[in-house]
What does this fold into?
Amino acid sequence: MDHGDMDHGDMDHGDMDHGDMDHGDMDHGDMDHGDMDHGDMAPAGIPLAEGAEDRDGLEMDVLHLPLGPVLPYWPPGVILRCVLHGDVVTEVRVQAEPLLGSVAFTAPRTPGAYECDDILVLLALAGWSPGENLARKARDACLDEEPERAAQLLGDLRRKLDRARLLHWMLRDLGRLEPADVRGQGLPEHVVGDVYDRLLAMVDRARVGLLSRDARPAADVEALIGVLPQLVEGLELASVRLVVASLSVSSAFTEASEGAHA
It folds into this structure.
């Protein structure tokens, strides 16, 4: 095979006139990116994240996320409309749904059961299963009309909480309210302190209430939910849920709705 017969001269690369492919004809201006409205990119009606400047000056995704009203371990009738930078809440607007918040439960009120539910919810969100199980047993004892048994279980829970150093560390300084904040905003005294302080107060109040069987005045629901923005801004989502649970908003809503329908 004589390569000499293959006259490369016959393949005139000059015939491949790249000038015929005028890249100028491919006018990128014809691809008008303005026609692609990114605002329409909301699959199934769920808005996508947008860009915004983070606290350190770098651009970061921003997501508008509503928390509630239908969410496990979430108080009825409350919606937190949050702006997230990553998983950190930077802006919060509270919305209360009167329809959801004013629905009265058909079952009669059982002393201590709602308070035990509040404790159960907070411990479940914290992932502390030993305390969650005790709170559930105490709640069931309340429903079985065994207040002494429920109070005993809450006493056992209180002693376990005193030794739960990891739980204390996790809840420490979350959603702290000073006494002056509480007095100035019409909040009940038992919400003073951080999430851990409020957890202990929840257990103590439920136990004392079961033993004394004294009715307590209902907390001001509007004051409780009104304080949420100042408590949760700057926290991660998991911490936000712990702070909300520590305010016993569910019991306050229930007591208020029962009072309205009494």
